[in-house]
Amino acid sequence: MKENMSIMVVDDEMIIRESFSHWFEKSGHKVSTAASGFEALDKLKEYPFDLLFVDIKMPGMDGIEFLEIVKKEYPDTFVVIITAYGSIESSVKAMKLGASDYLLKPFKPEQLNLVLEKVAQQKKLTGEIDYLKGCLDTMTRFDNIIGQSKAMVDIFELIPEVAESEASVLITGETGTGKELIAKAIHAKSKRNAHPFIAINCGAIPDSLLESELFGHQKGAFTGADHARKGFLEVVSGGTLFLDEIGEISTKMQVNLLRVLEEKKITQLGGREPIDVDFRLISATRRNLEQDIKQRNFREDFYYRINVITIEVPPLRKRKPDIPLLVEHFVKKYSRETAKRIDRVTDSAMELLNNFEWPGNIRELENAIERAVVLSKSRTLDRKDFSFIRSAPVEPEKTVSLSEMEKEFIRQALEQNEWNITRTSKVLGLHRVTLQKKVKRLNLRKSG
Amino acid sequence: MATKKFMIGVVPVGDTPVFVAKATAAHISGYLNLPTEILPALDTPSFAYDEKRLQYNAGIIIKTYEALEFGCEKVVALLDIDLFIPLFTHVFGEAKLGGKCALASIFRLKMERDGSCPAPSLVYERAAKVALHELGHLFKLRHCEDNRCLMHFSGDLEQLDRTPIYFCRYCNRFFKDALVDNSDSSFNS
Ligand SMILES: Nc1ncnc2c1ncn2[C@@H]1O[C@H](COP(=O)(O)OP(=O)(O)OP(=O)(O)O)[C@@H](O)[C@H]1O
Ligand SMILES: [Zn+2]
Ligand SMILES: [Zn+2]
User: Fold this and answer.
1) Topology of domain B8-181, per CATH?
2) Which domains, and CATH codes, for chain A?
3) Do A19 and B143 touch (CB under 8 A)?
4) What is the pTM of this model?
5) How close does chain B come to A360, measured CA to CA in Å?
6) SS3 per residue for A367-390
7) Could you give the ipTM of this predicted complex?
8) Distance (Å) from CA A410 to ligand 1 centroid
9) Is A270 left (phi over 0), alpha (psi -120 to 50) or beta?
């Protein structure tokens, strides 16, 4: 019995509790005690015990009642019933209710050891089953991308294929759906994986700066260019460049990048000699680029160049089967990080999480779980731990075009904030630069 | 000023023959390389007798003895009475982790399961094993997985006879470390 178990002794007699704890301490097991079933239930909320020794005769809540609750709430916890001579009948009842074993007090030390060994064996068995479940897990995850919905499983299959090719990839999907994660996975599986993966959020960088970030510049190329600086297109050499929010870059930038993709050469700002570059481009957008093309905000030739392979990532509300898996994954992740041992989400809380629309998708779900774990005082997350979740916004009507809705939405927000870009961008949760670009693209103007 | 070297006291209690105490003391100094001292005998602890169980409560005896001043760092009391702790039908010996006083009783060591009497030398050896095992607990040693180690728990005579009278490498190491810790604190006082 190599593995130490965490044990709790539930008995109203102090002498028995002491006796047990001294004995278990000598055997190297962690042991807690509780003088009643109620106290024990409180402790179980705080800490997951492997094994409980429970006296069958206790005032208040007796051992049988307690056993029933434990088996219902914590089915993985083993319970051994302690009885005195003459209560064989209740021991039989206890075994039927799921007790692992029972001991007649007083017992021989070897009997206790036998019980411990038996429980350790059972624990190992369930551990092995968990392990097998873990193997199944690998089928529902790719690297650290979790999912079991049809859409995600298709993407898992696509990633290695895409990784083999050199073609440009466009990943589309709402914010927080995992576009960057998928881009990283493609890079990791590709033969470029020994070289850098560089991610740039085009929506957060003004055009002028984006140009020098990408292409680099010579000293004195523009005011403020005190040093020569290599651009990311050069730095990424051999690796993968991930351009997030590609829909936000200007048509001028699109032309520049198109040339780079065709010629595989760049010229630094203020420089003369073209430099060879070698990278694979993965772009992402939450916009409908085809619509932008119609409205002449996005160049068709550039679009076909970056969109050799398309991966569409559906929003979380369209792939509900992923929610329980993601919840479990994030609960594990954050209880590990915060050293809390939270191992359960109640059905009621899960129902809430399942039915929520998650406009911010997986990022929002992850943040919600993190927050709930950090604030929780018990080992189970209940519905009330998620009371901070906003009620779901209505899904936009399909008949009105999205960009029209967006335009109207932004116009209202701007009006409410007297066209102050910084303030409005905060209200909308957008980067200031992104908002500026949107205002320009959507042709929004202060009225009156 | 502590001038006395780290000392283990061996106390015969009640009817325990003095030569059992002597044999145990010899084993302790022989196997653990620690100086021992035979202390004056104590009376049978009738205060710990349990009328219902017709046995002696080991926990009560330890509590009482730990309050006594023996003039030694650790003490092993050798008894010839049937000991129990509330959980168990009986125990050969008892000690708390890191405690000061350990108990070992020859009561159940001097009778085979079939009722026959073992050779006296076997009884001494068993008593020494129980005493050394309990002494191990006083030095914070826990039960050991290794059944070729004295700190492996033995619940019956068969097991006790199979257990050797020395610690495994791991427990030995632990014991030496605990000894250093212990003597440091007692020399500084
Ligand atoms: N399938 C998934 N499994 C596990 N974690 C995920 C999954 N999808 C997204 N995440 C996590 O959610 C967060 C957001 O993911 P990511 O940044 O890839 O989204 P995005 O679509 O690129 O977002 P944005 O468009 O806002 O940049 C990250 O912390 C990521 O690790
Ligand atoms: Zn022991
Ligand atoms: Zn050992």
Assistant:
1) Collagenase (Catalytic Domain) (3.40.390)
2) 6-137 (3.40.50.2300), 146-312 (3.40.50.300), 328-385 (1.10.8.60), 395-448 (1.10.10.60)
3) no
4) 0.52
5) 53
6) HHHHHHHHHCCCCEECHHHHCCCC
7) 0.82
8) 25
9) left
